[in-house]
Every structure is written in structure tokens, then in C-alpha cells.
């Protein structure tokens, strides 16, 4: 359940970026299965989900998609991203990804980026460290 954010969460599902739902699905089921998930948006009383397998009365966002395969693929990228970032931290490397550094970082990582979650190109909207990295003066 979310208070608002219908369009934002719709985009997350359509773009395979609904990491929270995939994590919930993984935590709720056995290793070979995936729970059906969705976002219920309180503001407009709408349920957002990929298909109608669990929620028959909704307008699905990806009606012809294989929700299990999508969840499995997203989960694998989440794991690879986690391990990739842990290796960076263990080696003392911490990334500062901003609009100003994105091209340089992508040049450094190159092929590694194909296996992990897509990295955002814009400055993070909710970055607690904005002052430290010079985004707010």
C-alpha cells in the first residue's frame, strides 16, 4: 500500500524496476515460486500489477508478460548488483554518481553494467549527501 504515486509506481512495474515488490515476492515464497505482487494506491483506490493471475478485476500493466520470469530476472540482477557493490566497498571504493560523473563512471565500468541493475543518470532526488558532494551550495 502506498498513499500516492500512481504514475511513478506504474513506471516502476512497466520498466522492471519494482525492486520492492520483487523482494517481497522472494521473501514470501519458496525458492522455485514467486508470489504475485502489486501496489495498492490509496489516493485513487487502484491496484497496480503486471497481470490478472492474482487480481482478476484490475487492468494489468503487462498482461502478456511472464511475471515469474520477470521477477526471477530482476532478482538475479539485484543479487549481482549487491555483490558488485559489496566488492567495491570491501576494496575501499565508493561511487559518487551524479549527472556530472555518470559518463566517467560508465566508461570505467563498461561491460559490468550489463549484468547489474541499470544505474540512474540523473542526480538522486533524495540524496542525503547532496551538500557533501557539492550539489547544494
Q: What does this entry look like structurally?
A:
This protein is mainly alpha-helical and 137 residues long. It has a domain of 89 residues. 37% of the residues lie in helices and 4% in strands. The chain contains 4 helices and 2 strands, in the order ααββαα. Strands 1-2 form a two-stranded antiparallel ribbon. It is globular and about 50 Å long.
Largest sheet: 2 strands, antiparallel
Instruction: Please tally the β strands and state the result.
Output: 2
Order of helices and strands: HHEEHH
Average pLDDT rating: 89
The count of helical stretches stands at: 4
Strand order of the largest sheet: 1-2
Work out the oligomeric state of the chains in this entry: single chain
Ends apart, CA distance between termini: 36 Å
- Content of β-strand: under 5%
Unreliable residue stretches: none
Structural class: mainly alpha
Into which percent range does the helicity of residues fall?
A: 25-40%
CA-based shape: globular
- Alpha carbon gyration radius: 17 Å
Amino acid at each position: 500500500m502506498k498513499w500516492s504515486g500512481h504514475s511513478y509506481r506504474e513506471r516502476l512495474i512497466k520498466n522492471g524496476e519494482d525492486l520492492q515488490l520483487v523482494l517481497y515476492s522472494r521473501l514470501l515464497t519458496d525458492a522455485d515460486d514467486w508470489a504475485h505482487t502489486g501496489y495498492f494506491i490509496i489516493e485513487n483506490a487502484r491496484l497496480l500489477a503486471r497481470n490478472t493471475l492474482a487480481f482478476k478485476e484490475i487492468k494489468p500493466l503487462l498482461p502478456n508478460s511472464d511475471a515469474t520470469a520477470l521477477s526471477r530476472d530482476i532478482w538475479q540482477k539485484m543479487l549481482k548488483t549487491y555483490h558488485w557493490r559489496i566488492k567495491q566497498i570491501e576494496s575501499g571504493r565508493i561511487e559518487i554518481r551524479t549527472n556530472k560523473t555518470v559518463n566517467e563512471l560508465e566508461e570505467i565500468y563498461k561491460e559490468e553494467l550489463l549484468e547489474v541493475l541499470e544505474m540512474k543518470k540523473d542526480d538522486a532526488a533524495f540524496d542525503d549527501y547532496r551538500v557533501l558532494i557539492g550539489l547544494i551550495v
